[in-house]
Records
---
Amino acid sequence: MRILYFGKRHFILFLLSAMLLLSTLYAHDATHKLADKIIVVDASHGGINPGANRPGVLEKDINLAIALELKNILNQYGAKVVLSRQADVELSDECDNEKVHRDLVARVEMVEESDADLFVSIHANAVANAVANAVANAKRHGAEAFFSAKSETGKALATSIQTALCTVTQASRTAKAADYFVLRRNKIPAALVEVGYITNIEERLLLQTPEYQRKIVEAIAQGIYQFFNKGNLQHTQSFDSKARGIYRSAWLIAIEVLGSFCPPDKTAASIAESSAH
Ligand SMILES: [Zn+2]
């Protein structure tokens, strides 16, 4: 009986040690970088709203291609992703002056309904057609990340994404505050990424290739991961601390279980003795 008792206790301790080891490995596994996170990826414009456009290029198409690829990578990191759209559709079928506003409201409501941790909106940029500075405008290029001036976590997120984007686009930009509706109205960390300028001929061509889209997407995903990794999030715990919490709870339960097998006022010998009756 005594052998059986010690065997069971050692087995439980072995099991707990294995759980602790696995939790450490899991927390540092790249495929689970963003486990337990819910991220809304907003493919801006769509349907009747093409966004910026130049002959043969519509912003809404670039946004969707990048958003779909971003979903794939974030899924590989373990995050749940909610896409604002998965096809060439607008989010409001109202065809009046309110339609753009309703479309934007729908994107923010999606965040509230999904209880998301983070929001990132994908756009492509364009310089307005202007005779003055036309040459300089045509050369303007580079990805840019924006945040709401009222959100410190939004600023941290946009800065993290911008840092990663600079390594891809060779741009030396910093994230900027901007008063965009989807940033202003979001209660969670939110960033808006202009992936590049379709008014720049070279960048326009790059933005249409899957290879360059993949580079942009990897940078955005890396920026999001770095944001969480630096502990910027108050909305939910970071994965590492949550994993530690779960396994600490497991330890406490195990200690309770062990305690019920071996009450502190009874020795193993006395348990063996009493069980013999
Ligand atoms: Zn746009």
---
Amino acid sequence: MKKCTTCHAATNGAKPGKDNLNGYGKDLQSADEVKGFVGMKKKTFTADELKKVADAIKAIGTKDSNGNGKSNDDDIKAGTAPGTK
Ligand SMILES: [Ca+2]
């Protein structure tokens, strides 16, 4: 799941950014683990920040961001985008 569309709604060819997050992206951005650096205009993240993102992905794994009745973890395992139905 290393696609922009995992967290962003790709519309009109817009670049992925904080203004086009899907449900999963919003849940990830609001996770305590990534507060303070995700959502800022950064193009690169430090190794420590990337670890925090990984922690946040684990933390929201039991949520159902796209409302399809399956957890984010289950969606990802099944190859389903966790942010879109
Ligand atoms: Ca889901």
